[in-house]
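Students often ask why we bother encoding 3D structure as a string. The short answer is that it lets us treat folding as translation between two languages. Here is a chain of 227 residues written in the first language.
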Amino acid sequence: MILFDNVSKIYSNGKIAVENLNLKINDGEFVFLVGPSGAGKTTMLRLLNCDLRPSKGSLFLDEWEVNKLPPKQIPQLRRKIGFVFQDLKLLKDRTVEENIALTLSISGAEQSSKEGKIRKVLKIIHLEDKGNYFPQQLSLGEQQRVSIGRAIIGGAQVLLADEPTGNLDPKTSWEILKIIKDINKNGTTVIMATHNVDIVSSLKQRVIAIDDGKIVQDKKQSKYSYS
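And here it is in the second language, the structure alphabet:
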């Protein structure tokens, strides 16, 4: 369960990124975050990942009160969360397998357990035959799949995706969406920020619209539209 309780983020220059967010997301939900650029979507995701701390209010992930976690506990929190970035953040000098395994290496997993998990994830992202490829040998869509694989290999309970189809053609976007939807069907909570009108309107999931740092609409089984 994720809970934003009157959460605001105000930067040192006085800019209000998000203001008075009140929001509950249940385990296993699939949620689209929509709204114009600069509305606060990425800030919400970064607050959840503890990249940012709220200026006001409380933010909960299950039993964790995120805004009160000491720095030494943040790595434990992040084991619950996988983050898919629009700009990928892949290491160019590492193979697909090595990029995916990075999360496990950081957490100190044993080599014997890594191999089985890597094979399983490669199957999920449909890259079983490209584990030894380097990112520059892959298409942009395949690189995004690697990013997804890296995000989920640690057993994340929550998947945060920031415009994962933003740079992709429509066909590839749907391929990425199918992978993310399958991950959600297996019980992972998904929160996806997107501008893709077709995807949002076709899937009819819960849609939370943000504008100027505030939630202006929250509807289940909705389309990409708000007033």
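Translate back mentally: The CA atoms of residues 47 and 53 lie 6 Å apart. Keep this in mind for the problem set.
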